[in-house]
Structure formats: C-alpha cells, structure tokens
Automatic annotation (TrEMBL):
Native organism taxonomy: Eukaryota, Metazoa, Chordata, Craniata, Vertebrata
InterPro entries: Urocanase-like, Urocanase_central_sf, Urocanase_Rossmann-like, Urocanase_sf
Protein name: HUTU hydratase
SUPFAM superfamilies: Urocanase
Pfam families cross-referenced by the UniProt entry: Urocanase
Gene Ontology BP annotations: L-histidine catabolic process
Chain ranges of the Urocanase Rossmann-like domain: 2-214
GO molecular function: urocanate hydratase activity
Length: 216
C-alpha cells in the first residue's frame, strides 16, 4: 500500500510497471519491501549489508534475485525497466554505494534510473548496528563497533551525509523520496546532512514521512 500510494501521489500513476523503487533493508520489518515492489508491479532494488538477511529473504521467496555486483544491478534494472517486468533485486552491499552509482549514471548518461526512493535501515539505533557506514565492509564495521564505537559513530555520520547528498541530487532531477518512519532524516540532520526544508523551521524536513503523507 505504501509503494502503490507513493506512485499515486508522487508519480500520478496507478500502474507502476516500468517504475523503479530503490531502498535498503531486508531484515525484520524491512524484509517486506522486496515483496511490495513485485506486488505493486515495479522494479525494486533493495540494498542489504548483511548477507544472512539477504539469503533468508531469497530462500523464503520474498526476493527474486541477488547480486553483489553494481554493474549487474544497473544492467538488470535497465532491462526490467525497459521491458516493464516486475522484479525484486537484492544488492548485497551498502545502499550508499547504490545511490552514488545511480548519481554516476545520471551524470554520465543523463538518465534518471529511479522514480521512488526510501530507506529502512534501523536509524532509530544507528550507532549500535542499525546502520553500517559505507566506508567499511560489514565485517569490518562490526569489528570497529566493538573495538572503537566512537570512531564507528563518526563514520556513520559521514556516511549519512554522503547518503543524503546522493538522494538530494536524484530528487532534484525528479525522484520522489520519503521517510519510512525509521528516524533516517532525523539522524541525517543530526549528522549535519542537508535535509532541512527550505524556508521552514528546523523541525521540518525536505522529504515527507509516509505516515502523514502517504498512508494518511
């Protein structure tokens, strides 16, 4: 319902075939995102750093394909988008790398490959394993979290700034992004990322929350 209503509200589209939804998280509640994309008929690319979560969703049939290669992900995205095939593709890697690759595609080809975007990392708990920084691999991140949590926190905040910078570039070209109620925008703001709404007070973000804006 969230993905369908985002399409209706932001894209003015009842039919989401050929549309691309990019997000992250295949763990607990976020595990439904892959299934949602296919039910809605769009192309869903969902990043997940934890291979165990990715494999679990694939084994359960909630996720159609898995890849750890960004070149392959972009090729499959383009193919499914062009042919209007419903697809859920799990990218085993950090979502920041995925967003930055989509910016690179926009910069080099002029092509905006994503229509809808969100995030379901556990940003309500970003410094205890809910969000892994793009600068490190998953295992390296886990090790740093246990040995130097202060450094881990700094890297998470740097990663959040990169995360938002990429989203902002794509949103400026017409992608619609929403907050999934996971404190992503709040933590990004605390990290110093550019998520404030122009001309509004500090408590307002440039991207809406799905609770009021989509489900409401």
């Amino acid at each position: 319902l969230t993905v369908l209503n985002a399409g209706r509200r932001y894209l003015k589209a009842e039919d989401l075939s050929g549309k691309v939804f990019v997000t992250s998280g295949l763990g607990g509640m976020s595990g439904a995102q892959a299934k949602a994309a296919v039910i809605a008929g769009c192309v869903g690319v969902i990043a997940e750093v934890d291979e165990a979560a990715l494999l679990k969703r694939h084994k359960q049939g909630w996720l159609m394909e898995i890849s750890n290669n960004l070149d392959h992900c972009i090729a499959r995205l383009r193919e499914a988008r062009k042919n209007k095939i419903a697809l859920s593709l799990g990218y085993h890697g950090n979502v920041v790398d995925l967003w930055e690759r989509l910016v690179h595609e926009l910069d080099t080809t002029g092509e905006l490959l994503v229509d809808l975007g969100s995030d379901q990392t556990s940003c309500h708990n970003p410094f205890s394993g809910g969000y892994y920084p793009v600068q490190l691999g998953f295992e390296e991140g886990k090790q740093l979290l246990s040995t130097n949590p202060g450094k881990f926190r700094t890297l998470v905040q740097e990663s959040l700034k990169r995360h938002v910078a990429a989203i902002n570039k794509l949103a400026d070209k017409g992608m619609f992004f929403w907050d999934y109620g996971n404190a992503f925008l709040l933590e990004a703001q605390r990290a110093g990322a550019d998520v404030g709404k122009k001309g509004a007070n500090k408590t307002e973000f440039r991207y809406p929350s799905y609770v009021q804006h989509i489900m409401g």
